[in-house]
């Protein structure tokens, strides 16, 4: 399946980057000029090994309390104080990390291209356990203190005992014929294990036993070719106040009730990077490069910003009164939550910025493709 996934990614990017009546690929849109309203101040910066590598990994760091944890593609895992950037420990796994990083309940957990899950101690960085899964892990696991939940590239969900690493249960799904290269991180509560699948479905299982609780389709495959029928949910799920948000490629963005799976609202959308939510609105970066703000009450668009076409935008994140996201040239953009206008911009990493920004306590953390991790605040 790996060569199919790589081909699928290349074809998808080509389809996005080309006009319908021309075979010539259009370049990324030029950066628009605007009057800066918000200035970002760099608090500290660290280099995390080789960063994302060349295989389109999405190695997003993780924050747990006052610590931030990051990993690079070669297996370097680093723990830092998130306020000062001081390095607390480093661990070399000597394995190709592709799913990173989950942190909490005394564990730092990463997945590898070789189908392994490795759990480290949050205080010392020492390995606590490792386990084998059925295929490569391309997104961060999820933790609830009792189990560690992993979604593999072949759409299986596997739960491990958080203390021992012993397998609790496995739930198998049949993946789509062609998929984008990637999976979203699952969501794990004390009762439910929830994941978005390559078939455009969201499934919720009992977290203790792996028994299905509900299933909801977010996207219906359409078109004659397998390429046209790709409806992966790759951007991860977002849980906020009992509402679960998901967006699919060539499908829809939807809000669902966590307990029942009932769709609260939905809207046509195509995205592989996920959504953000704040102030009664949902924000989605579409595959075309358009940034859209959606009113949760009416499911209608509040605003659209299409000035960043073909710039391969990262997942958005709410930061103060703004929406933050990166692009292929490593710029971090800030737009207003109210009307989507540009208010700030700074360059993080010339190699690009495809990992979702992290926000905690008024600080924003951006992890560039080359491994540059930067902490920012608003002046």
UniProtKB/TrEMBL annotation:
Places the protein is found: Cell outer membrane
Membrane topology term: Lipid-anchor
Span of the signal peptide: 1-24
GO biological process assignments: Gram-negative-bacterium-type cell outer membrane assembly; protein insertion into membrane
Alphabetized InterPro entries for the sequence: BamB, PQQ_b-propeller_rpt, PQQ_rpt_dom, Quinoprotein_ADH-like_sf, WD40/YVTN_repeat-like_dom_sf
Listed SMART domains: PQQ
Keyword vocabulary terms for this entry: Cell outer membrane, Lipoprotein, Membrane, Palmitate, Signal
Record-annotated Pyrrolo-quinoline quinone repeat domain positions: 74-304
Pfam families: PQQ_2
GO CC aspect terms: cell outer membrane
Known function: Part of the outer membrane protein assembly complex, which is involved in assembly and insertion of beta-barrel proteins into the outer membrane.
Similarity remark: Belongs to the BamB family.
NCBIfam families assigned: assembly_YfgL
Oligomeric and partner information: Part of the Bam complex.
Name the record gives this protein: Outer membrane protein assembly factor BamB
Originating species: Pseudomonas guineae
Gene expressing this chain: bamB
């Amino acid at each position: 399946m790996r060569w199919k996934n790589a081909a699928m990614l290349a074809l998808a990017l080509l389809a996005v980057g080309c006009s319908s009546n021309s075979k010539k690929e259009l370049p990324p849109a030029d950066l628009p000029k605007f009057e800066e309203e918000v200035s970002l101040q760099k608090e500290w910066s660290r280099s995390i090994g080789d960063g994302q590598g060349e295989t389109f990994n999405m190695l997003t760091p993780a924050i747990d309390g006052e610590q931030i944890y990051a990993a690079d593609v070669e297996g370097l895992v680093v723990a830092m104080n998130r306020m000062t950037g001081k390095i607390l420990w480093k661990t070399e796994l000597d394995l190709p990390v592709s799913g990173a990083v989950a942190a909490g309940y005394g564990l730092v957990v990463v997945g590898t291209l070789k189908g392994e899950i490795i759990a480290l101690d949050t205080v010392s960085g020492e390995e606590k356990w490792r386990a084998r899964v059925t295929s490569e892990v391309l997104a961060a696991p999820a933790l609830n203190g009792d189990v560690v939940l992993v979604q593999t590239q072949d759409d299986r969900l596997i739960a491990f005992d958080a203390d021992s690493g012993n397998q609790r249960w496995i739930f198998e799904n049949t993946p789509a014929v062609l998929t984008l290269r990637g999976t979203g991180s699952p969501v794990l509560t004390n009762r439910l294990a929830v994941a978005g699948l390559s078939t455009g479905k969201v499934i919720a299982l009992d977290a203790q036993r792996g028994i299905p609780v509900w299933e909801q389709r977010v996207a219906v495959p359409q078109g004659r070719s397998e390429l046209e029928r790709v409806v992966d949910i790759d951007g991860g799920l977002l849980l906020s106040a009992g509402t679960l948000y998901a967006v699919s490629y060539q499908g829809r963005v939807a809000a669902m009730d966590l307990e029942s799976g009932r769709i609260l609202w939905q809207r046509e959308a195509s995205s592989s990077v996920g959504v953000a939510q704040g102030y009664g609105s949902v924000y989605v970066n579409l595959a075309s490069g358009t940034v859209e703000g959606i009113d949760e009450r009416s499911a209608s668009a509040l605003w659209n910003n299409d000035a960043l076409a073909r710039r391969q935008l990262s997942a958005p994140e709410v930061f103060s009164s703004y929406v933050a996201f990166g692009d292929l040239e490593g710029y971090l953009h800030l737009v207003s939550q109210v009307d989507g206008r540009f208010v700030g911009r700074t360059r993080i990493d010339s190699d690009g910025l495809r990992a979702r920004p992290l926000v905690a306590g008024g600080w924003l953390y951006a992890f560039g493709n080359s491994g540059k991790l930067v902490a920012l605040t608003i002046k």
